[in-house]
Amino acid sequence: MRNKVFCYFVFAVILLACSPPTLYANIQNGDFSAGLNGWTVESGNVSDGGGFALFEEHPVVILSTLKQEFTLPDWSSMSLLFDVKMSATPGGPHDPFAWPDAFTASLLDPVTLEPLIFNPGRTDFFYMDNAGVQTIGNLEVEIDLSGLGLGGRDVGLYFDLIGSDDGMLTSANVDNVQFIPEPAACLLLISGALLLRRRKV
After folding, report:
1. Could you tell me which of 45, 27, 31 has the C-alpha nearest to residue 176?
2. pLDDT digit string (tens) for 110-127?
3. How far apart are CA 53 and CA 132, in angstroms?
4. Cβ-based burial of 159 (10 A; exposed 0-12, middle 13-18, buried ≥19)
5. Which of 74, 82, 109, 141 could connect to 177 by a Cys-Cys bridge, CB 3.0–4.6 Å?
6. Given 3-state DSSP classes, what are the helix, strand and coil percentages for the chain, each rounded to the nearest 5?
7. Coil, helix or strand at residue 109
8. Is residue 15 part of a domain?
9. Domain range for residue 106?
10. pLDDT value at 23 more than 50
11. Number of H helices and number of E strands within the chain?
12. CA triplet 79, 25, 120: central angle to 5 degrees?
């Protein structure tokens, strides 16, 4: 009887460790259910889209930037996830030599603004542009942070819509920003518990 109670206790701890409440650890309002609370609009045109962050080109400012500074979960294996949708319609100034409008994401040191995810020649770890495509819908982005030694570190997460005179009016939606432990970590815990149960029975 004691063995069964102990095993149930171990499994309960594992389920709590790997359950959905851990998904939004250390980041505020990652699903934007409370508007832009917890986030800072640093420049440009970013607003509450009703359950997501809406980025739109600004007529003067090149960058429309949304950021949040926080402490990463103290996990050795984790991933950053978010959903993004880009839309573009013809309009605005057109310079044939202009770069296309783009959406980027960066994870920076909050003091030095140095990139914490290595991407040769860039500060951002994620980049997409309209490149003539008028709608890029509901892209689910997952960035593996395992092995980078970032667990427990203070970081700044930046999302930027970069406008240009490409003759397109571009917007982007961002939602479901979350850090999750790698499934392998949970599977390892479960495997250990099963092995322990076999020894106890």
Report:
1. 31
2. 999 999 998 887 889 999
3. 23
4. buried
5. 82
6. 20, 40, 40
7. coil
8. no
9. 24-181
10. no
11. 2, 10
12. 35
Q: How confident is the model at residue 67 (pLDDT cuts 50, 70, 90)?
A: very high
Distance of CA 173 to the CA centre of its chain: 13
**Structural domain includes residue 88:** yes
User: d(Cα 94, Cα 130) in Å, to the nearest integer?
Assistant: 14
Q: Cα separation of 122 and 104, whole Å?
A: 10
pLDDT score of 18 more than 80? no
- Rounded mean pLDDT of 174-193? 69
CATH number at residue 36: 2.60.120.260
- How much is the average pLDDT of 180-184? 73
Alpha-carbon distance of 104 to 179, in angstroms, equals: 18
State the sign of the Cα–Cα–Cα–Cα dihedral 25, 31, 35, 40. Answer: positive
> Do the beta carbons of residue 107 and residue 27 sit within 8 Å?
no
Confidence class of residue 182 from pLDDT cuts 50, 70 and 90? confident
**Cα-Cα-Cα-Cα dihedral of 186, 147, 112, 106, to 10°?**
-70
Is-above-0.70 flag for pTM?
yes
What's the number of domains the chain is made of? 1
